[in-house]
Specification:
Number of strands: 22
Largest sheet: 6 strands, mixed
Radius of gyration: 37 Å
Shape: elongated
Strand content: 15-25%
Amino acid sequence: MSKRGKTVGSTLPKRDVNVIFSRRAALLSFVGAGVLGTILFRMAQLQATNLISREYSAAADENRFDTRIIAPPRGVIYDRFGTVLAQTSKDYQVSILRSEVEDLEEAVGRVGQILGQTAEWARRAVIKVRGGQRYEPVPILEGLTWEQFNAINVRLPELRGVIANSADVRAYPYDIVYGHPIGYVQKPTQRDIDRVLEDGSPEGERRATYLRNPHVRVGKAGLEATMEQTLHGEAGWRKVIVNARGVEMGEDVEERKEPVRGSGVVLTIDHELQRTAMQNFGEHSGAAIVMDIYNGDLLVMASAPGFDPNLFVNGIGQADFDAYNLDEKKPLFDKVVTGVYPPGSTFKMIVGIAAKQAGVSDDWSVSCSGAYPYGGRTFHCWARGGHGRVNLHNAIKWSCDVYFYQAALQAGPERIAAVARQFGLGEHFDVSVPNIRSGLIPDPTWWRENRNEGWTGGLTLNYGIGQGAMGVTPLQLAVMAARLGNNGLAVAPRLVREAPGVGEPAQPPHMNGVEAEYLARVRDGMYGVCNEPGGTALRAGNLELVRHPETGAAVMKTPENSAWQPVQIAGKTGTAQVRALGNNRGRHFSTIEWKYRDHALFCCFGPWHEPRYACAVVVEHGGAGSAVAGPIAKEVMKATLLRDPSRRPAARLAQLEDNLSRNA
C-alpha cells in the first residue's frame, strides 16, 4: 500500500470555500455599514446641536482663542487745586516668554549683562519666570530708562523669547513728599491671592486669576490702600489668537472690552504747603500738620523723613528696603497718625481750662521758686531759678511747671482727662489712611484696670505738665489747637475733599462745658507765648507779615508797609521727656544720644485777629520745642497765611475728570 503525502491548505471542496467567504464578507459589510451609519448619525446629531446652541463651536474657539486681562488705569489723585499727585504713566519693561526660550538661564543672563544686573538679580528673575505663565510674557525688569530700553531693543533679534515692551504703571511725581498720606501700590502677594480664595467661590477663583496678572497693582499703604475700590477701576479684556503651543499670534479686534479708569480723588492738601513743610524738616524726624479750624481740611500732612513710593510699585529691592527699615528715624513710619508722644507743655492749656472749670479764679496765682515739694519728692520747674509769682496768663506764656503742678491738683485727673478728650486728645480720627492710633489719656479708672494700682498725687502732678503715661498723636495736637482757635467748635480733620461717596463736612458742634471765658484766658496766654516779652516762642511768632488795610490779606513786611497791622499767631511750646533725666539733667541735648533726647513740640493757630488755621509740629528727639519745632511751624504758618488756601476756590473733581478724558 502506497504512503499518502501531507495535504496543505483546506480540504473543503472549492464550492464550500467560496460560500463561507461570501458569508463573512457580507457580515463584515453589514457591521461596517452599521458603524459608519452610527458615526454619520452622531455627526448629524452634533451638527444639529451645534446649530442650536453653538456649544461645540465655542469649544473649538476656546482652542484657537485666549482671553487676556487688561489692567485698568487707577484713578488720579489731586491736591485741592488740581495738582496731580498720583497718576498712571508708561513704564518700559523687559519680559520673557518662556515657551519661546530654549535655555532660560542663558536668556536671563544675557539680559542681565546688557542691562548691568547682578547674578543675584538673574537668579531671582529665573525663579520669577518659572513661577509665571508659560505662554504669557513675564516681566523680569521694570522701570527701564530710555537708554536701557533701546539697548535691549537693538539686540532683540539675537534674544529669542525676550520682549521689550511698555505698560501702564502707577507713578508719584513728587516721591517723598507724599509717601505717607498717599502711600503706594504693589503687585498682589500670595497672601492677597490666598485671601480671595478662602471661600472657594467661583468669584474668588476669578479674582485670584486677575490678581496673578503681572500688570495688576493694588493699594498697599496710605490712601492707595484705604480707597482701593474707588481708585482701582474696572478691568478690561482682549481676545487673542494663539497657536497650538499657546503663543499669541494676533488679536480679534472685534472681541475686546476696554478697561475703565478708577475714579479720581481730590485731597484737602495744598501741594505748595506740603512741600514747604517737608523741606523745612531738613534732616529732622517728625510730623507737621496744618488744618482749617472750621471745616477740618488738612492742608499739610507731612511726616519726615519721607520715602519714595515709586520704589515699591514694581517691587522694592532688598538694599533699598533695608535702608528704609533700619533707619533709626523710621522713614516708613507715618508719624502724623501713628506716632504717639507725651504732649509736654502743649497740654498746659487743657490743665488751665480744667482748673477754671474746677472754680480756680482769674487772680489765683502761685509762687514758683524753681521746684515744688510734694509727697516726699521734689518736682522741678524747667526754669531752675523759678518764675516768681505766676498767674494763668504768665504761666502759659512762661510755661511754668510749678503753676501747673498745683493747677492739676486743683482740677483733679478725672476733670483734666475729660477736658483733654473734648479737645480731641485720645480720640480716633478717621482721615482715610491706615494704622491710625488713638493715643492714651489715662485717668484713675484706667489706671486701676490696667496697672492694678491706685492713682497717686504724684501722677496728677506729672499730668499737669503733659508727662507720664499719656500719649497723643501730632494729628490730635493739631485738632486741639484748632478747637482752641475756633472758640470751642468740635471740628474733626479730613483728608479727602472730593471722591465718590464723600460729602461736605457737617457743621461742628460746640463743646459742652467749655465756656468762652475759659477759652479766652488760655488763648490770651498763647498769644503771650509768641508776642509778649518773656514768651517762650517769640522767634516762632515773628512772622514778619502785615495785614493789607484794603484786602485784609497777609503780605510780607517791608519798610514801606511796616506801619500796617502785624499778622500774628498764638501758640505753645512743649518739650516731652523720653526718659527720666537722671544724669542728663543740665546737659545740652546735643551731647545726649539721639534716641534719648527730648521730643520738641509746638502748636498754634492764626492769624490772631481772625483765626483760620491751626498748626502742630513734633520733632522727634529735637530738644526744646522753642528752638526746633517752633521755627519749623513759623515757616509753615507763614507760607499758609500768605497763601491763604481756604479762601481760594478749590478744584472740582468733575472738571478734573473731564479734562483727563479729553486729553486721553
